[in-house]
């Protein structure tokens, strides 16, 4: 019975991770596919951010640090790990916002002024 209970924890944890990956892939892929196939065939979706590379590197780094944190916590989900992940998410958001607002380097044009 203990083995079954532990297996359910692993299934729930991996299901939670896979759901987020699925949501991101479908949430980005389906609208882009509809735009480029059904609405305006052969068109391209323009992404107006030169900071996208920085955001991707930051995201991959945060995933690596999250996996490292889970490993250092001996693959146990507890309050400390939850607090660690929440702090990592807050740091990720702060850095992403600062990148988009040109705090570190110039990646986006300034916003247009209202007349």
From TrEMBL:
- A single Gene Ontology CC term: plasma membrane
What are the recorded Gene Ontology BP terms?
intracellular calcium ion homeostasis
- Domain of life, source organism: Eukaryota
A GO molecular function annotation here is: calcium channel activity
User: Where found, per UniProt?
Assistant: Membrane
What does the record give as the reaction this protein catalyses? Ca(2+)(out) + K(+)(out) + 4 Na(+)(in) = Ca(2+)(in) + K(+)(in) + 4 Na(+)(out)
User: Where does the record place the Sodium/calcium exchanger membrane region domain?
Assistant: 20-98
Q: Which UniProt keywords apply?
A: Antiport, Calcium, Calcium transport, Ion transport, Membrane, Transmembrane, Transmembrane helix, Transport
Its membrane topology, per UniProt?
A: Multi-pass membrane protein
TM region positions: 21-39, 51-69, 81-99
In which family does this protein belong, per the annotation? Belongs to the Ca(2+):cation antiporter (CaCA) (TC 2.A.19) family. SLC24A subfamily.
Query: Could you tell me what this protein is called?
Result: Sodium/calcium exchanger membrane region domain-containing protein
Q: Which species does the entry assign this protein to?
A: Albula glossodonta (roundjaw bonefish)
């Amino acid at each position: 019975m203990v083995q079954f209970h532990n297996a359910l924890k692993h299934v729930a944890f991996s299901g939670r991770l896979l759901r987020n990956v699925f949501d991101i892939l479908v949430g980005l892929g389906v609208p882009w596919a509809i735009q480029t196939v059904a609405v305006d065939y052969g068109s391209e979706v323009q992404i107006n951010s030169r900071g996208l590379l920085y955001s991707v590197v930051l995201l991959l780094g945060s995933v690596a640090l999250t996996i490292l944190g889970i490993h250092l916590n001996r693959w146990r989900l507890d309050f400390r790990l939850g607090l660690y992940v929440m702090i990592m998410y807050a740091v990720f958001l702060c850095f992403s916002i600062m990148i988009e607002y040109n705090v570190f380097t110039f990646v986006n044009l300034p916003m247009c002024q209202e007349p």
